[in-house]
From TrEMBL:
Keyword Oxidoreductase carried by entry: yes
Protein's name in the database: Pyrroline-5-carboxylate reductase
Pathway participation: Amino-acid biosynthesis; L-proline biosynthesis; L-proline from L-glutamate 5-semialdehyde: step 1/1
EC number: 1.5.1.2
Domain Pyrroline-5-carboxylate reductase dimerisation: 159-263
Organism of origin: Terracoccus luteus
InterPro entries, per the entry: 6-PGluconate_DH-like_C_sf (IPR008927), NAD(P)-bd_dom_sf (IPR036291), P5C_Rdtase_cat_N (IPR028939), P5CR-like_CS (IPR053790), P5CR_dimer (IPR029036), Pyrroline-COOH_reductase (IPR000304)
NCBIfam families on file: proC
């Protein structure tokens, strides 16, 4: 039996936990920790997993998953430093926090993997990137890959790319939800009942995402197929271009990557 400890089981921790259970992991092999006893009790009740303190959980686990906010990482690493086993792999999900940051606060030689997941993992459609730290073996990286593949796709990348990944796929679902909100609102402005507008937008998004994935066509080709000369789509797209929406996306995503780099100190 190998034990996985999820330290700081909030949104992302519970997402990973539920993915592990759906993929067939035994609830008895998963330990969660948290700061709020009511939250921990909820997780135990909902998923049948065990709860322990951070130090005990770290000591009991072969895979220790750090799921706290970047600003809480220093404190958590202080708590577990003397308890992580020499053969354990430590997996950090925190935006911006480097493997060097984690390694420097754990015993010399500890195997660390940095991961950037996203919330669609909750429906087994996650996209995660993983990067090895300086003491991480192939076996440990494969372990992290298996952990994340329980709830979606995983790519292996060099750590230098992880701030960009954070800005694209880590934060990405929020940009999509933002666009969805705007489209639903537009439907309401045009007089559609809110429920109808929501159904139209959600299915359109699902259909468009499925086309991208299944046809593997370039998005420009798919967009041109919708855009009749002199028609409705080009009238709308011209407005988006006039309002510099494409440029705004690039600037916004650059800001997310910059913020990820800033979070690297763990205190920003
Ligand atoms: N949400 C997302 O879409 C994504 C998040 N991430 C990363 O995942 C990490 C977690 O994010 P998210 O799940 O959204 O955040 P949450 O705030 O939902 O979860 C973090 C949890 O950790 C708890 N916590 C804080 N300090 C400790 C501690 N010392 N011991 C035990 N528990 C502690 C918090 O408790 P309390 O409630 O008391 O603060 C909270 O319940 C972040 O580092 C984030 O960058 C990565 C990819 C996507
Ligand atoms: O907003 C954040 O900082 C985290 C990291 C990626 C998604 N959510």
């Amino acid at each position: 039996m190998t034990v996985t400890a999820i330290l700081g089981a909030g949104v992302m921790g519970e997402t990973l936990l539920s993915g592990l259970l759906r993929s067939g992991r035994d609830a008895g092999d998963i330990v969660v920790t948290g700061r709020n006893p009511q939250r921990v009790a909820e997780l135990v009740e909902r998923h049948g997993v065990r709860s322990l303190g951070n130090a005990e959980a770290a000591a009991a686990a072969q895979t220790v998953v750090l799921c706290v906010k970047p600003q809480d990482m220093e404190g958590l690493l202080d708590e577990v430093r003397d308890h992580v086993g020499p053969d354990a792999v430590v997996v950090s999900l925190a935006a911006g926090i480097t493997t060097a940051f984690v390694e420097s606060r754990l015993p010399e030689g500890t195997s660390v993997v940095r991961v950037m997941p996203n919330t669609p993992a909750l429906v087994d459609q996650g996209m995660a990137a993983i990067a090895p730290g300086s003491h991480c073996t192939d076996d440990h990286l494969a372990e992290a890959e298996q952990l994340l593949s329980s709830c979606g796709r995983v790519v292996r990348l060099a750590e230098k790319h992880l701030d960009a990944v954070t800005a694209i796929s880590g934060s990405g679902p929020a940009y999509v939800f933002y666009v969805v909100e705007a489209m639903i609102e537009a439907g309401v402005v045009l007089g559609l009942p809110r429920a109808t507008s929501t159904e139209l937008v959600v299915q359109t998004l699902y259909g468009a995402a499925t086309m991208l994935k299944e046809t593997r066509e370039h998005p420009t080709v798919l967009r041109e197929q919708v855009s009749s000369p002199g028609g409705t789509t080009v009238a709308a797209l011209r407005q988006l271009d006039d309002h510099k929406v494409r440029a705004a996306f690039v600037t916004a995503i650059e800001a997310a990557a910059a913020r990820s780099r800033q979070l690297a100190s763990g205190t920003a």
